[in-house]
Amino acid sequence: MFGLQSLHRCCESNFAIKFKKPGYSNVRHIIDCTEIFIETPSDPNLRAATWSDYKHHNTAKLLVSITPHGFFNFLSKAWGGRTSDVHLTRESSFYDIIEPGDEVMADRGFTIAEDLLIRSSRLHIPPGKRGQEQFTKAEVAKTKEIANLRIFVEQAIRRLKTFRLIKHELPISLLGSIDNIVLICAALCNLYRPLGKK
């Protein structure tokens, strides 16, 4: 993938300091989905498939994975904004780069723990409420801890979207090239200073 997957292991010795703490030293992927605004399609089916209730706009959605230093090591193909995060994750080729022992960090909406378990991998997500009225102190601490580590993927996505083509509404004429556009933008981001570097 244009050098993105080659970063899967190269940063192991330089993990961000926060990830060296016990319990997170095997995190290899921090994942999230991001949406890119697109011009409203004239085709009603395409318009429906790309409508995002979350963004209240027509979008293309893709799954991104970064290393704890903020290097992109996976980008999915773009899907319509209507696609759920879990469906996109399962239907992308993300699981193909997961190796036994790898750990993945994500938001609680990524209910993929069993998918990863089959691959001898582990998922780190903030704890859910499970019907109780309040979190326990331990759950509050865990939620805060994971949020502080997941911030890297949000920063990486913000960095990705500084490129003008995907910062604003992508013209419908470029929709067929969106995968290549985003891939090149991500490869350029990988030339920047690592997010986790002091």
UniProtKB/TrEMBL annotation:
Alphabetically, the GO molecular function entries are:
metal ion binding
Q: PANTHER family under this entry?
A: THAP DOMAIN PROTEIN
> The DDE Tnp4 domain covers which part of the protein?
31-190
Q: List the cofactors.
A: a divalent metal cation
Q: Does the keyword Transmembrane apply?
A: yes
Q: What is this protein called?
A: DDE Tnp4 domain-containing protein
Q: Which residues cross the membrane?
A: 170-192
Indicate the segments annotated as coiled coil, or none if absent: none
Instruction: Alphabetically list the UniProt keywords.
Output: Membrane, Metal-binding, Transmembrane, Transmembrane helix
Q: Which organism is it from?
A: Pocillopora meandrina
